[in-house]
Write a structure and sequence with these properties.
This protein is α/β, with parallel strands linked by helices. The protein has twelve helices and 14 strands. A hairpin with a 2-residue loop joins strand 12 and strand 13 (307-317). It starts with a strand and ends in a 5-residue tail after the last strand. The structure holds adenosine-5'-diphosphate and magnesium ion (MG). Adenosine-5'-diphosphate is lined by residues 11, 13, 18, 20, 38, 40-46.
Length: 349
């Protein structure tokens, strides 16, 4: 439904040309929710604005439902844009218009009659659960309600594609989940294709079918979401995942943490139990087999689609000669092991 072929985007600035996107290739299937994650400045907004040509790519092709947008005349492009709705982080509602008036705006601009507008808006108010708010003004609405108005407005011209630029970034985690659930409902009921960009892994985890990572203008990894979380390929993917699952080490460990091994220290490990590895038996096995004391500092098991992902931070204490073989044993059993650092033996944890 959405095909981006070899998209490049350069910005001319006072200090010369900046390459914001480099050879981006994406194919989003009809009815799919496709997430793009990246840090601030990675090029996410530029990329999504290239999809509806709010931003013209420097080169490359944008093909929506089989139609190459980059080749269209201005009038045809306006019509093609109606196939795409867009929602934003800051909602972009008109404060002088009430809920109904905001949703009606694109229909008024398209020259629809009052009756056509009412017939379109009534079911949209229902779908977004705003029927009793239709005469309220944006200032009287919560963030979640404002975003629901923006979603209804984006759907008013019956698009096939919805583009979402950080639509939940200004919302609290609970409201974020209700908006993501609404997007999934819309995908299911209207068979919409959704391209969603975010800097939050939790958004990817709870709503997307596939995900790609954008870093410094390049797509560096792409996968089905369950596979992405259990078999990440690049260091940046691993970083996004671990930082979303285990946020911080306890302060009692983080402060005295040493980067290199010293006498009278023991290692702190991050263990990543990939698909199908049971966590508890392996921990007790290495404890017994290598006569080590294992202290679990943090643990988390998540279910993403039909994949299970477990992560733990553990302290391993025991004779040094037994620690390396224990780490080898973990690796042989499909556990990814990362040494985070070393803690002096006399630190109580
Ligand atoms: N209109 C512009 N003119 C010049 N540089 C821009 C413009 N818009 C974005 N950039 C630059 O392009 C890069 C990507 O920006 P952006 O797409 O906004 O990233 P993100 O949305 O991932 O934070 C940044 O280095 C940014 O400074
Ligand atoms: Mg942005």
């Amino acid at each position: 439904m959405i095909r981006l072929e070899h998209i490049y985007k350069n910005y001319m600035t006072a200090r010369g040309s900046v390459t914001a996107l480099r050879d981006i290739n994406i194919h989003v299937n009809s009815g799919e929710i496709f997430g793009i994650i990246g840090k601030s400045g990675a090029g996410k907004s530029t990329l999504i604005r290239c999809v509806n040509l709010l931003e013209r790519p420097s080169s490359g092709e944008v093909i929506i439902a089989g139609e190459a947008l980059t080749a269209l005349s201005a009038a045809k492009l306006r019509a093609a844009r109606r196939k795409m709705g867009m929602i934003f982080q800051h909602f972009n509602l008109l404060s002088s218009r009430n809920v109904y008036g905001n949703i009606a705006l694109p229909l008024e601009l398209a020259g629809c009659t009052k009756k056509q507008i009412a017939d379109t808006i009534t079911p949209l108010l229902e779908l977004t659960d705003l029927t009793d708010k239709k005469t309220a003004y944006p200032a009287q609405l919560s963030g979640g309600q404002k975003q629901r108005v923006a979603i209804a407005r984006a759907l008013a011209s019956k698009p096939q594609v919805l583009l979402s630029d950080e639509a939940t970034s200004a919302l609290d985690p609970e409201t974020t989940l209700t908006i993501l659930q609404l997007l999934k409902n819309i995908r299911d009921t209207l068979n919409l294709t959704i391209l969603l960009i975010t800097h939050e892994m939790s958004v990817i985890k709870s709503s997307c079918d596939r995900v790609a990572i954008l870093q410094e203008g390049e797509l560096i990894e792409e996968n089905e979401v369950g596979e992405f979380f259990t078999h990440p390929q690049t260091d940046i993917a691993k970083h996004f995942i671990t930082s979303s699952v285990l946020q911080h080490l306890p302060a009692a460990i983080e402060r005295p943490l040493l980067v290199t091994e010293q006498p009278h220290t023991h290692p702190i490990l991050r263990l990543w139990f990939l698909q199908g590895t049971a966590t508890q038996p392996i921990i007790s096995e290495i404890s017994q087999q290598f006569n080590l004391h294992i202290n679990i500092l943090q643990a988390n098991v998540e279910y993403i689609k039909n994949h299970v992902m477990g992560m733990m931070i553990v302290a391993l204490r025991g004779e040094n000669v037994r620690i390396q073989p224990a780490i080898q044993y973990l690796k042989q059993n499909n556990v990814q092991v990362e040494v985070i650092g070393y803690v002096p033996n006399d630190i109580a944890i």
